[in-house]
Write a structure and sequence with these properties.
- Helix 4 links the parallel strand 5 and strand 6.
- The protein starts with 16 loop residues before the first helix and ends with a helix.
- The protein has a domain of 150 residues: 60s Ribosomal Protein L30, Chain: A.
- By secondary structure, the chain is α+β, with helices and mostly antiparallel strands.
- The protein is built from 6 helices and 7 strands.
Length: 262
């Protein structure tokens, strides 16, 4: 009878792989329990945990101190489209605007010149105050009118609008060699005002026109000295140009500047 190996006794208990599997299950259960606790914990508890992680790992946490800036009540960035810009207007409503210059904290002084800006069918009509009128028979603008025309020219030089300067007279014009009638005197007043308006500015001569209307459009009756003084004036009419006309004028103006070496 041959010699036979004695079989080994089977090991008692669970196999060895079950230990590793149990450890993995325990870790997963612990992980899910932590996730659930984080989702239901109070805000102050979450802050403590964030602080602990940040302290150990060098993380950067948002400031919660007393000097932290508060969020604005109306955030304009939220209302701004990245391409179209603001989706809601931010301008103040008309009812909240000041009605006059006194409410703006800038009371009228002797240096201010009163203007009457009126919307008309073909654009805007600017009429200056009585202090900007002309002396009888004169085409020389006074100092207040000069200052107003310079300030207006500074603004208009940035826009492609047609500017018409209209000269006016009363009906008591005495003929002179230079200005034999009302039309000639009103044209002289318009020319003198246009020169001041354009002086020292890159304004195309093609966008500034003059008109002499004589006494055909009085502001007041000519039967008193006060009324005649109101009528000795210049008005400025601002008209919009078509895009094609504005582009053509701009091209002509640039060509003239190039030819003049400016």
């Amino acid at each position: 009878m041959g010699k036979h190996d004695v079989p080994e006794d089977p090991q008692q208990g669970a196999p060895e792989w079950i230990v590793t599997f149990s450890d993995m299950i325990s870790l997963l259960v612990t992980f899910f329990v932590m996730l659930m606790s984080f989702s239901t914990m109070e805000e102050n508890e979450a802050a403590v945990i964030r602080g602990a992680f940040g302290q150990n790992t060098g993380g950067i946490l948002e400031s919660s101190g007393g000097n932290a800036a508060a969020s604005p009540e109306h955030d304009r960035l939220v209302a701004t489209h990245p391409l179209r810009g603001a989706e809601r207007p931010h301008a103040r409503p008309a009812e909240e605007l000041a009605d006059n210059i006194d409410e703006m904290g800038q009371a009228m002084t002797a240096e201010h010149v009163e203007l009457d800006l009126t919307a008309v069918q073909d654009g805007l009509l600017i009429q200056f105050g009585d202090e900007c009128g002309f002396a009888p028979g004169s085409d020389e603008p006074n100092e207040k009118l000069r200052r107003s025309l310079r300030e207006l020219g500074e603004v208009l030089s940035h826009y492609s609008h047609l500017v018409v300067i209209e000269g006016h007279t009363d009906d008591h014009v005495a003929p002179t060699p230079n200005n034999p009638d009302e039309t000639a005197l009103s044209l002289s007043r318009a020319v003198a005002s246009a020169k001041i308006l354009m002086e020292g500015r890159d304004m195309s001569r093609d966008v500034v026109q003059i008109s002499g209307l004589g006494s055909s459009r009085p502001l007041a009756p000519n039967d008193t000295a006060v009324g005649r003084a109101k009528n000795r004036r210049v008005d400025v009419r601002i008209l919009a140009l078509s895009k094609a006309r504005a582009a053509a004028l701009q091209a002509e103006f640039q060509a003239r500047q190039a030819a003049e070496g400016r």
